[in-house]
Amino acid sequence: MDLREYLELKLVLDGNVVLDELSAKLLFLINRYGSILSASRALGLSYSSAWDMLTRIENILGKRIVEKHRGAKGGARLTSVGLNLLERYISAYKKYFHKEFSVEIPLKPEASQKIYVYAGSHDIVISYLASLLRYKGYIVEVHWIGSLKGLSSIILGESDFSGTHLLDPNTGEYNVSFIKKYGGSTSLALVRGWLRSIGFITRSRISFEEIIEKLLNGSFRLINRNEGSGSRQLLEYILRLEAKKRNTRIDIIRSRIREYNNTAYTHYEVAEQVSTGKADVGIGIEWVARAYNLYFNHIKWENFDIIVRREKIEDKFYKDLIETIKSKEFIENIKSMPGYNVPENIGEVLFF
Predict the structure, then answer these.
(1) Which helix or strand (DSSP H or E) is residue 181 part of?
(2) Please, are residues 147 and 229 in contact by the beta-carbon 8 Å criterion?
(3) Where is the PBP domain (predicted)?
(4) Is 188 in contact with 310 (CB distance < 8 Å)?
(5) In a shared domain, residues 117 and 83
(6) Which of 246, 256, 284, 329 is 20 to 30 A from 322 via CA?
């Protein structure tokens, strides 16, 4: 039996692990490459896992550790907090292991053709859109990281286009206010996308009111969506309304829900959890509910829009992207899908 001893350094704050060896390597490579995407690729991590690590650290510290790199090229860089955290880890590593902290950095191959990166919310139509763009000769890479992280990704210059469906609870408007809130007013443009029906997915027919009651009395187990996703934002909006109605705090409402922290990255994962009995309810799109022969309780029609870099809107790829979205084939395909529809201004480019 080949048993080996393994020691790992961790930085801990109030019982929470802030930094371990893998997350330290991630920060090290972000600092080296100036890119979260490149750092995750070098470590063999999914882009969504890298974002989750960064979000977890920022939530524990209550401070940003990554920010947009100022300049024409954009990209990501560590904040002063992020740099201090990495330096603290490197210093402690040398102290306890008597050697320098290092990360094996693979050589980045020169790409013979540009890779266009989609990073954003999960949607069936995005997969279809990506296939049409590939048919036109583009190499398209898709990462399901959620609406908010997708917005952050394109602001950082890490991705080429993103999909989002973020509801502003104050105005009832989708997406636009979030672009303004996160500083994308001058750098981003919004391409009007499609409409999709979103709601609660269950194994049996049940009313909206009964679902809320069963969630709050603990008889239903939830499969939630990942932090930063539009579906999770919608659930939070519903829970806030419920907290107001019951004259209580949102955190108390959350604490009553079984498996509130059990999360999925895609609508397929939500349907799979409900279908197999691992969860009783989750928020997802009608199309997936029907595909899994599950019951669907409609909440609202939402705008699923595409965000692009404003300065690149005249590039051939973006012209082809918009042309594809406005094409008769694309629109008819969307209209044929249960739980989907198109607005009259699909493909319209909006500036802020």
Answers:
(1) helix 176-181
(2) yes
(3) 135-326
(4) yes
(5) no
(6) 284
**158 neighbors 119 (Cβ within 8 angstroms):** yes
Tell which residue, 310, 265, 322, 305, has the closest CA to residue 173: 305
Segment 122-133, tens digit of pLDDT = 999 999 999 999
Apex CA 102: angle with CA 101 and CA 103, to 5°?
140
pTM score, two decimals? 0.81
pLDDT tens, position by position, 55-89: 899 989 999 899 877 654 567 889 889 998 999 99
Burial of 30 by CB count in 10 Å (0-12 exposed, 13-18 middle, 19+ buried)?
Answer: buried
Whether residues 187 and 274 share a domain: the answer is yes
- Taking a C-beta distance cutoff of 8 angstroms, is the pair 209, 238 a contact? no
The SS3 call for residue 236 is helix
Smallest CA-to-CA distance from 204 within 287, 259, 283, 281 is with 281
Q: How far apart are CA 270 and CA 278, in angstroms?
A: 10
As a whole number of angstroms, the distance between CA 9 and CA 11 comes to: 7
The residue with tokens 């930094």 is: 19
Residue 333 domain-assigned (yes or no): yes
Domains: count for the chain? 2
* Residue 147 phi, psi (nearest 5): -65, -50
Residue-number span of the structural domain to which 240 is assigned: 113-352
